[in-house]
Amino acid sequence: MSVPHSATGRTAGSLVPEAPAAGRSSGGTGRSGGRDGARRRPRRVGTARALAVLAACTLALLAIVAASLAFGVRSIDPAVVWQAVIGPDAANADHNVVWQLRVPRTVIGLLAGVALGLAGTLIQGVTRNPIADPGLLGLNSGASLAVVLAISFLGVSAPLEYIWFAFGGAAAAAAVVFSIGRGQPVRLALVGAAVTAFITPLIALVLLRDVDAFNQYRFWAVGSLTGRGLEVAAVLWPFILLGAVIAFVLANRLNLIALGDDVANSLGQRVGTTRAVAGLALVLLCGTATALAGPIALVGLVVPHAARRLVGSDYRWIMPTALLLGPVMLLAADVIGRLIVPNSELEAGVVAAFLGAPVLIAIARSRNVAGL
Amino acid sequence: MAMTTDATTRPAADLADVRAGVAAVRRRNRMRLALTLGIGTVVAAVFAVIALSSGAASLTPDRVLATLFGQGDRTENLVVFTLRLPRILAALFVGAAFGLAGAVFQAVLRNPLASPDILGVSAGASLGAVWAILGLGLAGAVVSGFALAGGIAVAAVIWATAWRQGLHGIRFVLVGVGLAYVCGSLIAWLLARAEVRQAQAALLWTVGSVADVRGDALALLMIGVTIGCLLVALVSRGLPVLALGDDHATSLGVRSSLRRGILLLVAVLLIAVATSVAGPIAFVALIAPAIARRLVDDGSAALTASVMTGAVLTLGSDVIGQFALPQFTAPVGIVTGLIGAPYLLWLLARTERRGSGRKAVA
């Protein structure tokens, strides 16, 4: 009897990230306390501190949006950028660059970042899994396969038409991964890897036969904020809004799930219903993000961990923090990618993987996962 | 307790019984191993004859055999020795290397999931090769060198980051998955920037194919794999003990960390040689040892049988890939990937049903 108990306790406890280098001990009351999951109290921070964090995140977001508009291969004076934003002049080439290139990718980065940040938080909360992420769980590869098949066999070519296939593929992959990998955190990630491993050769098979499909797919697969116009964002924002609303409504329920399924059930919560609704929101958010920016891995992993470190383990504060930090990370990746290679660009997906991998490794090295 | 009293009251009779029992089990195990290897050879031979006789210029099996024994005409010699035999040899040796390396990994790390695919080494090798092909415009043997360097570099990073008071299987796997994402995103980036036909060639490399392994590369592969197998045979005498765990092995007088280190190093080199020649052929290193262990079924690491199952699996997959789809030759890596991923899923699903997932995975 004691084995499953300590197991749930550890899983619930692992929601609080414990990076090895962290020397923080303030407020970590329940973290190292009882081994029993039911008695483990989440770490809370004061409202004042949480509000301060939110304000700081908002400032960071504004700064990164400004940077995203200001920096690029073509150097434009910040004053000119500001003029372009407040009063665009169609005859001015710099203004056109700002409006036709930088504003769309910033908007898409904002939307996709929000979606990935919230999706990662939802997955980690619902599965009590510190290493959950749309990419790690195979949702991206499901979306990729659907898009490849659509391009190759149905002749789909416009990003607006990819969307529905990305949705369907992500939903199917989510269904498979969650039904097989249910419960155990590490296994969920491994099942995600296995599903990805099954889908990758299928994608390669299609792409090796069809050079035209490969030519379209490779630009989508790299994970980029460019190449989609504002019209795609105009179609997709309601999905993200709906997903975000569901995520916020579920925040308090995630707090109960963090205590373990048994506790949540005994407190009158329908864990199964919560999981199903969260799954719907996940598919909405991941599918949209993938349709907007391609398969971007590890943003959904890093953002919730960062949010937890900042505002504690209360999902009512984590959600808004993740909402702000998601676009901060994605746009930062995009801006870094623009600046790091002279006369060229690294796509946001590549930079995001580089930013995210050390975090994944740090989590893997932490005591919680090693103890599994 | 009853057993102990029995044993003390009738020691002589029991000892003889036990000795006879052990001898019987050993005989049975040797029989099973011999049977496994025999059947494996027959299956490999059948696949080889199929591969030699089918294709654009089809030969009858008896002509194939005649050609092999030096009775063929010029065309038959060309088709069999120059076009088809190198591919078969490459498949056999690459498969043997992956099978043995996977068996070593899984035994030493005590983790049925340990394989270069899961650990990110394949991704590193792919990145090295794709960078050489697309980033530097290289071709031929140099690409293999870059693949080798990439795979070893990623292995080194995994080693450095996953080592914390010992090798924990699950940490290895997670760090490998993380690095695989970094490599994958860089590969996607390189593929998106290159000329499309070249990019497709690089994509083919990342899938893994034995179609164009011949000449010096094939000779290098055969020599390297043979040396690797001999080294493993030499070092692995204590491996059944090693599989019990560090503490047991040390208490039995086996210097475990040194041997484990050497074995893992040889396994990494085997994978590096095979990958640099044929690309990262998915999951052979994961499945072949699992099949071998089931066939031999004596609780050992089944190293010898893994060599056989790896070779047969790769050759069979290559034959299937060549003839399964009309008008398209699927590279061997696609076939093994499609076979291997469901096995991985099954492995994970089964461990959950048994409720012993933690043990099996960690």
UniProtKB/TrEMBL annotation, chain A:
GO cellular component: plasma membrane
TM spans (from-to): 50-73, 106-123, 135-156, 162-181, 188-208, 235-256, 277-303, 315-336, 348-366
Keyword Cell membrane: yes
Keyword Transport (UniProt): yes
Region Disordered, residue ranges: 1-43
Record membrane topology: Multi-pass membrane protein
One GO BP annotation of this record: siderophore-iron import into cell
GO molecular function, one term: transmembrane transporter activity
Subcellular location: Cell membrane
Keywords: Cell membrane, Membrane, Transmembrane, Transmembrane helix, Transport
A Pfam cross-reference name: FecCD
Record family assignment: Belongs to the binding-protein-dependent transport system permease family. FecCD subfamily.
The protein's name: Iron complex transport system permease protein
Organism: Agromyces terreus
TrEMBL record, chain B:
Gene3D superfamilies linked: ABC transporter involved in vitamin B12 uptake, BtuC
Swiss-Prot/TrEMBL keywords: Cell membrane, Membrane, Transmembrane, Transmembrane helix, Transport
Protein name: Iron complex transport system permease protein
Homology family: Belongs to the binding-protein-dependent transport system permease family. FecCD subfamily.
Any one GO biological process: siderophore-iron import into cell
Organism for this UniProt entry: Agromyces terreus
Membrane topology: Multi-pass membrane protein
Keyword Lyase in record: no
Compartment(s): Cell membrane
A Gene Ontology cellular-component term: plasma membrane
Molecular function as annotated in GO: transmembrane transporter activity
Alphabetical list of PANTHER family matching this protein: FERRIC ENTEROBACTIN TRANSPORT SYSTEM PERMEASE PROTEIN, FERRIC ENTEROBACTIN TRANSPORT SYSTEM PERMEASE PROTEIN FEPG
InterPro entries for this protein: ABC_BtuC-like, ABC_transptr_permease_BtuC
CDD domains listed in its UniProt record: TM_ABC_iron-siderophores_like
